[in-house]
Specification:
By secondary structure, the protein is an alpha/beta fold. The chain contains 13 helices and ten strands.
Amino acid sequence: MVYDGGEGLVEALHGFDVFVTEMDIVDFEALNGLPDLKMIICCRVNAVNVDLEAATAFGIPVANTPGRNADAVADLVVACMIMLARKLPQAAAFLKRDDIEAGDMARMGEAYLAFQGRELWRKTVGLVGLGSVGARVAGRLGPFGARVLYCDPGVDAGAGALAGAEKVSFEELLERSDFVSLHAPAVAVTEGMMNAGAFSRMKEGAFLINSARASLVDDAALAEALESGRLAGAALDVFAVEPPGSGDRLAGREDVIATPHIGGNTVEIGAHQGEIAAGQLRALLGSKAPEHILNPEVLEGFDWTGPRREPSPRELERLAANPKPSMTS
């Protein structure tokens, strides 16, 4: 069951010291009504469902689980690269046509000509972002013999080299890459970064893969780049409206692999995030700072057995007036 904060969550967590959640809304009302709660672990990369300001005011450490789905997303990204390069969606649909007869070598010849693909060998892959997912994609591409470029202001050239990638500017990445894969966060500076100007810089016949956030891509500009033949195809796991409608300009195209935000949806995710969450709790129980704590300032004076911090009446009034956190996929 998923709780929308408030009284329902208070009733469910009464008497508990630690709350491990992924989808529940942990709002001010719930935190105010749970005096025994001492730690929150959010099994997400972005803990948007937790009122972090309120948790900090009550002295409650909040930790998250970055990288929990990194392997799953990296697998999907490389799979999409292979599918695009080898024209697998079109090839798989060919034998499902109702005009194919057994032993029809003319049809086989048609398929041979139409579906000749390319290998990842010696192709250049540009990763926009070399965080937990991007680094794993880079690691998977090495055995294919691909060259990997990346742009990420937060990762220096030395760290990138250890991941098997060469650091370049965003512009150079676009100009040199046969595949551009997006792994950047959804922040103001990255919004619409893949616009008409960016697509005009890309190599003719290149591919775009977006498994990160829909806000990184100008959909209209991408559609125009595909329609003009500038790009040979795209793979999209995220959309501005999810799921996109059946008439969506991008999802309905034959040269677009469209998936319903399944990048991090594997049966193994629970094990990955459980391992990370357990590590955060183990650290705090051992009087150490959890590696992925989001509000480290609360650790000074934190005590599992003593009373937690109580906000002043003015703080309580201000926190109560703040917008309630929401859930994003």
